[in-house]
Design goal:
- It is built from eight helices and five strands, in the order βαβααβααβααβα.
- The protein has a five-stranded parallel beta sheet, sandwiched between helices.
- The protein is 58% helix and 12% strand.
- By secondary structure, it is an alpha/beta fold.
């Protein structure tokens, strides 16, 4: 079984992935941002490095899905391949930070990739306001994230909302991160687990 956690930068995907993996005994698969060779350059000059960054993410995401499908374990994944194209690349293009030529090339590659792999069995979407995102980004203190623009986060949030509404599968759970602190409050994590239990029992 493949469970994926989706959400904007700072929404708590990695934290929730770890907590649920520990609770259920699932195999976690994290997004390895710390070894990404493009992130620091990208946040300094988005227009120059946007295409390179998105191709890197797309490549790593597809490789991750292939690994998940080969695994005999239940795997919970931090971020999905859909977010790369439907959210991040599309937002960069709309902001004029990725050329139309590069975006069309990227989108063609993405469309080919997703035609070859199945979607997650269950999607967990973390919905968070921009102030919550900013607070959590500042809290974790990654140097390369210190220059993230507010308008960039807002644009991503708007695209996330469009995407999750159009996500065709009924196998999804939407969590309001503004009202949940699952990292520090066990009762909030219990709410998430109860919802997840109900969904999993109904699906499988």
């Amino acid at each position: 079984m493949h469970i994926a956690v989706a959400g904007n930068i700072g929404s708590g995907k990695t934290t929730l992935t770890g907590l649920l993996a520990k609770h259920y005994g699932w195999e976690p698969k994290y997004e390895d941002a710390d070894t990404n060779p493009y992130l620091t350059d990208f946040y300094k000059d988005m227009q120059r490095w946007s295409f390179n960054l998105q191709i890197y993410f797309l490549n790593k995401r597809l490789a991750g899905i292939v690994e998940i499908k080969r695994s005999k374990n239940v795997v919970i994944q931090d971020r999905t391949i859909y977010e790369d194209a439907c959210i991040f690349a599309a937002n960069l293009h709309s902001m004029g930070l990725m050329t139309t030529r590069d975006y069309a090339n990227y989108k063609d590659l993405f469309d080919l990739m997703i035609s070859l792999v199945p979607p997650p069995d269950l999607l967990i979407y973390l919905r968070a306001s921009v102030p919550t995102l900013v607070n959590q980004i500042q809290k974790r203190g990654r140097e390369y994230e210190s220059s993230i623009r507010i308008d960039y986060l807002q644009g991503l949030n708007e695209r996330y909302e469009e995407w999750i509404e159009s996500y065709s599968s009924d196998n999804k759970i939407i969590l309001n991160v503004d009202a949940l602190n699952f990292e520090e409050k066990p009762e909030d994590l219990s709410i998430v687990i109860d919802r997840l239990d109900a969904k999993i029992n109904g699906l499988f």
